[in-house]
């Protein structure tokens, strides 16, 4: 802003701000009677376009339904000091929780969304009250509030007096290919598109959800949130005409598993009040990382909270439809194997029929891996003890493994229906594809399995990915890929973002969505000269932010409820 003094009769633009509920307001200051400057308020006709952010698994705060006690509050980092103490507190609390305690606490039917988490409004221009009203306190603050604040600020300041503002006049206009777009079907944002978008009032909301339950049910919960909270707000608090509200739609911006929720909402439930969808780092066909976690536990400091071994992870994940829906589907890697049993030299073993012991052998991971109780199954027999650790078993008529297999059947059904339903017609996606971000693309058991397959053998599983014995060395252990004898033609899907392998991240592009941005060493364009981002922190990367805003602007061109739009009132 210029520091030059105003001319005596120069117009003064009254800045637009937000009140405590996030509604636009204009506040003018009184001046001396001899100051004849015109005070100009650049008032827009009201036409809200809510942007609904849907987080990934474990990204929503959860509390106990009965007593409202905090159950899940993911640590936000080590700074400021409050976050440091909160992180230490979370580590200390979860350190003492064994598999049984975790299972008791993290049951889908016992928890609900907790909207009382800490909030970072950043430079959004919103008050904390307004941000909380819009659901910002439901999610992991450090991973999601910054990008929500950035979107709120930038979408609020696209054009002033028909001139593009700062970021929009520079970075936003760059060719999509420079930002890693890989399909070549879309062009740059142009000024006319930005002028149209600037007529709308973008309000960023957040739809947290119970990530332990099925994504199919979470989609219904998001629908109810839009219908019963978001849209009624504009009639009640903005005074919009009911007819205009009835024509409004929303844009969904998702992170990770939130993409499955959004797809279930639009494609399985047929919800029509979604104008378009932006997917970020979606495990579109699943992620083999979940197998690693259920057999080895998590790695690094995160393991204290998320689970240090197979028992602590299996006790929760094996009872969570939402988590299991992240497992590789039959379409993952186009049905090719991803679990390999290898000898000590890294060569794939063969079964008694001479077929490579590479699973799934017949494009059915549900029967071949997830239901299998063999030593390499998702829940081998020795880990069945973690399926139901309650003092009073859930059912006296069927066993825990029967319940688990029924759950796997429901997962297979969900995967099949989601694959057949495809994507919303206005879908934009971005994902990490970096070879330096190991994402457990190939799950390899390396070692001699003969002792484990001897009838009556006692299996000593350390629950961190290794079988051992006092009398035998060289038993199978899980090792990092890639497969030594892998197919070089299959290398396009290598790498990822440390959680979602490139194979799964690129699936929307292969399905023909409007645009797909590949970020990292496997991507092209000027923006990909640096390393790809890590999964959880992806929206704190400028490339993911650019791709999300690009998608929002492109989708907005379909909006038609502004009074000046064709068909508007």
TrEMBL record:
It comes from the Bacteria. This is Alpha/beta hydrolase.
């Amino acid at each position: 802003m210029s520091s030059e003094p105003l001319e005596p009769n120069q117009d003064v633009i009254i800045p637009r701000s937000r009140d405590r509920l996030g509604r636009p307001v204009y506040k003018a200051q009184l001046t001396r009677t001899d100051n004849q400057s015109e005070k100009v308020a650049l008032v827009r006709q009201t036409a809200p376009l809510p942007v609904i952010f849907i987080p990934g698994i474990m990204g929503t705060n959860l509390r106990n339904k009965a007593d409202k006690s905090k159950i899940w509050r993911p640590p936000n980092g080590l700074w400021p000091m409050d976050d440091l103490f909160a992180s230490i507190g979370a580590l200390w609390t979860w350190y003492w929780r064994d598999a049984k305690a975790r299972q008791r606490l993290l049951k889908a039917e016992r928890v609900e969304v907790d909207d009382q988490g800490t909030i970072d409004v950043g430079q959004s221009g919103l008050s904390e009250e307004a941000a909380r009203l819009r659901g910002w306190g439901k999610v992991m603050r450090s991973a999601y509030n910054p990008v929500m604040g950035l979107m709120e600020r930038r979408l609020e300041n696209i054009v002033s007096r028909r001139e593009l503002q700062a970021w929009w006049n520079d970075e936003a206009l760059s060719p999509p290919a420079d930002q890693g777009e890989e399909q070549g079907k879309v062009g740059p944002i142009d000024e006319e598109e930005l002028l149209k978008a600037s007529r709308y009032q973008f309000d960023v909301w957040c739809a947290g959800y119970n990530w332990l339950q099925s994504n199919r049910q979470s989609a219904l919960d998001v629908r109810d949130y839009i219908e019963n909270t978001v849209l009624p707000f504009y009639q009640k608090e903005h005074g919009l005409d009911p007819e205009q509200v009835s024509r409004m739609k929303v844009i969904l911006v998702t992170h990770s598993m939130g993409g499955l929720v959004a797809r279930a909402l639009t494609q399985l439930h047929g919800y029509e009040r979604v104008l378009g969808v932006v997917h970020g780092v979606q495990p579109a066909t699943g992620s083999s990382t979940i197998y690693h976690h259920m057999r080895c536990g998590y790695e690094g400091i995160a393991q204290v909270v998320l689970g240090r071994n197979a028992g602590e992870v299996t006790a929760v994940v094996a009872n969570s439809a939402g988590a299991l829906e992240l497992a590789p589907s039959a379409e993952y890697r186009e049905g090719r194997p991803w679990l390999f049993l290898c000898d000590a030299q890294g060569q794939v073993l063969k079964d008694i029929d001479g077929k490579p012991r590479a699973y799934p052998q017949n494009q059915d991971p549900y029967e071949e891996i997830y239901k299998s109780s063999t030593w390499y199954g998702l829940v081998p027999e020795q880990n069945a003890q973690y399926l139901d650790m309650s003092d009073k078993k859930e059912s006296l008529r069927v066993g825990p493994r029967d319940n688990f297999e029924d759950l796997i059947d429901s997962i297979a059904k969900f995967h099949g229906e989601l694959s057949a339903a495809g994507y919303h017609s206005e879908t934009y996606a971005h994902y990490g594809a970096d070879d330096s971000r190991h994402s457990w693309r190939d799950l390899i058991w390396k070692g001699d399995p003969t002792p484990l397959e001897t009838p009556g053998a006692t299996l000593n599983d350390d629950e961190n990915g290794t079988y051992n014995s006092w009398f035998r060395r060289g038993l199978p252990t899980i090792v990092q890929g890639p497969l030594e004898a892998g197919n070089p033609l299959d290398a396009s899907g290598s790498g990822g973002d440390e959680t979602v392998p490139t194979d799964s991240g690129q699936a929307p592009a292969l399905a023909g969505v409007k645009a797909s941005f590949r970020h990292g060493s496997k991507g092209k364009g000027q923006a990909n000269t640096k390393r790809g981002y890590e999964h959880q922190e992806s929206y704190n990367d400028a490339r993911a932010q650019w791709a999300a805003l690009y998608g929002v602007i492109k989708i907005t061109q379909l909006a038609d409820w502004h009074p000046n739009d064709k068909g508007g009132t």
